[in-house]
Amino acid sequence: MSIDAVSVIREEADLLAAALTTTDPEQKVPTCPEWTAADLLWHLTEVHEFWGAILAHGVTREEEAQELEDAAAARPERFEELLERRAAATEELLSQLQAHEDEEPAWFWYSAEQTVSVIRRMQIHEATIHRVDAELAAGRRVSPIAPQVAHAGLDHVLRVMWPAALEWIPEWAGLAPVALAEITADAGQPRRLLISRWTGIRPRDGQEVDAPVGRPVTDEDETDGLPRAEVSGSPLALDLWAWGRGQALEHLSGQSEKVETIGDEEAVAQMEALVAEGHD
């Protein structure tokens, strides 16, 4: 059964707004500590405006996407105006999603995915995960995520969010595999993830860089000898964990969930480092 993206995005975005309406706009967001509640609301607003505009203008090139971003209207000063603008932005995005088919070409920030389908999937999880952020900022219990959405959210991190980072590694950096992780939701088939680190000296300031990246293992990968970790949990727990919202597991409404990570110490450390990179 496919996910009704429009219904999920509308419901999650409305839950986010409802949580933030009763929250001090200056309240810090525990899972995004650099943001206030008002910043979180603005983030979802500009995300919905941007991707609605991408679809409305039929954007397929990065230059066109940058032009739209540069032309975006400024952030409102009053919180009430921001709430109104968020609602309008969400409705425009949903209207555009309903007007386009998944197979239509559309620009996206990951070269392997360049159709409307990835925008639709991304916005499901953007709204869902930021709704979790909003409930935590409001001091509320975290509402559950539907199992089908949670499964898809984990899949999206494995297929898009982590692999996309490999495209942003600069030419001056080196890349080396450091660990292998097997991620299993309930009793499902394990998903094998190759974790690498990219390292180098940044030319502009001489700073040493060392950061993890991950992608699904392919048949061409040589993984013998790599330290290994096993990660398991429910789809809900793994979805929150993979999106960097593991602390939300302690605040779930009506249920107790956890992620179990076992294996070689080095592999577990590399897996934790990759998750700590987070996703906005």
Notes on the protein architecture:
With 280 residues, this protein is α+β, with helices and mostly antiparallel strands. 45% of the residues lie in helices and 18% in strands. It contains eight helices and seven strands; from the N terminus they run H-E-E-H-H-H-H-H-E-E-E-E-H-E-H. The strands form two sheets. The chain has a five-stranded mixed β-sheet with strand order 5-4-3-6-7. It has a two-stranded antiparallel ribbon with strand order 1-2. Helix 1 packs antiparallel against helix 2, helix 1 packs parallel to helix 5 and helix 6 runs parallel beside helix 7. The two termini are 28 Å apart. The model has no long low-confidence stretch (mean pLDDT 96).
Topology, pairings included?
Layout: H1 5-21, E1 28-29, E2 32-36, H2 37-56, H3 62-70, H4 79-99, H5 116-137, H6 147-164, E3 174-185, E4 191-201, E5 208-216, E6 228-233, H7 235-242, E7 260-263, H8 265-276
Helix pairs in contact: 1-2, 1-4, 1-5, 2-4, 2-5, 5-6, 6-7
- Based on DSSP secondary structure assignment, what is the total number of beta strands? 7
Q: Which structural class should the secondary elements be placed in? A: alpha+beta
Helix content bin: 40-55%
Strand order in the sheet with the most strands: 5-4-3-6-7
Q: What share of residues are in beta strands?
A: 15-25%
Report the span from N to C terminus. Answer: 28 Å
N-to-C series of helices and strands: HEEHHHHHEEEEHEH
Helix count?
Answer: 8
- Gross morphology is globular
Rg over alpha carbons: 19 Å
* Unreliable parts: none
Q: Quick one: biggest sheet? A: 5 strands, mixed
Mean pLDDT across residues = 96
